[in-house]
Specification:
This protein has about 150 residues and is α/β, with parallel strands linked by helices. It has a domain of about 70 residues: 2-Layer Sandwich (Histidine-containing Protein, Chain: A), CATH 3.30.1340. Helix content is about 45%, strand content about 15%. Strands 1, 2, 3 and 4 form a four-stranded mixed beta sheet that branches. Helix 3 packs across helix 4. About 20% of the residues are buried.
Length: about 150
C-alpha cells in the first residue's frame, strides 16, 4: 500500500513537472516561433489618460486653474496632466507649488511664476517632464531671491 502511494506520487510529480516546463520533447525547438518573432517590431499602445478621471473633474480643475490664472486646454488629457503636475508640485518639498502657474494645452506644459532658487526652477521642470502624457515643457519660471522684510524701530 505504501509502495503504491509512493509510486502514484512519483508519477504525479513527473507529470506535473513535464506539464510545467511545456517542453515538447528532445530535438524540438518549442521556442522557434518566439525566437523568429524577436526581430519583428511590436507596436505598444501607450495610454496616458486614466478612465477614472471624469469630465466633471476636468471642469473643476479648469475652474480652479482659472482662479489661479492658469490655462488648461479643452481635452480631458490636458486637465488630467494639469492635475497630476500640480499634485506632484505640492508633494515635492523642493518646489513652491502655489508660486508656479501650470498651463497645459495640447499636452504641452508651460511653467510660469517666480521661484526662490535655480534648484526650485529645475525641480519644477523635471517634475513636469516626468509626468506621463506631457509632450513638451516650456520653463518660463524666473528666479528671484525672497525679499527680506526689515523691521522698523
Amino acid at each position: 500500500m505504501k509502495r503504491n502511494l509512493m509510486l502514484l506520487a512519483a508519477i504525479a510529480a513527473t507529470s506535473l513537472g513535464l506539464a510545467a516546463c511545456e517542453n515538447p520533447g528532445p530535438g524540438i525547438n518549442g521556442n522557434a516561433n518566439a525566437n523568429a518573432n524577436m526581430s519583428t517590431p511590436v507596436a505598444v499602445a501607450k495610454a496616458t489618460a486614466t478612465p477614472k478621471y471624469t469630465e466633471e473633474q476636468a471642469r473643476e480643475a479648469r475652474a480652479r486653474a482659472k482662479e489661479n490664472k492658469e490655462t488648461i486646454g479643452d481635452t480631458l488629457e490636458d486637465a488630467w496632466i494639469h492635475t497630476k503636475i500640480v499634485a506632484k508640485l505640492i508633494a515635492n518639498s523642493k518646489t513652491p507649488e502655489r508660486k508656479i502657474n501650470v498651463d497645459v494645452v495640447n499636452n504641452a506644459v508651460t511653467l510660469r511664476g517666480t521661484v526662490d532658487t535655480a534648484e526650485e526652477k529645475a525641480a519644477a521642470e523635471q517634475t513636469a517632464k516626468e509626468t506621463e502624457g506631457v509632450t513638451k515643457v516650456t520653463n518660463q519660471l524666473k528666479v528671484a531671491a525672497p525679499t527680506k522684510s526689515t523691521k522698523t524701530k
